[in-house]
Amino acid sequence: MGQADVNVNLWLKDTKRFADLFNAILFHGETVILPENLHPSPETTAVSLQDAQGKNVVKSNTVISS
Length: 66
What we know:
- The protein is an alpha+beta fold.
- It has two helices and two strands.
- It is about 35% helix and about 35% strand.
């Protein structure tokens, strides 16, 4: 795993950041995912999100689940 992946994982471990990012991307800014309802999962998986042009904008191996 490269340094960029490590940095993204550290950034996404903050539940407020995680909720803000996914609310913006998935729900057009509407507050659907609440940080207080999230907790780290012992499992890891890859997450990759792309912008409208198909460019990867987020890649993570950290999972936060509700």
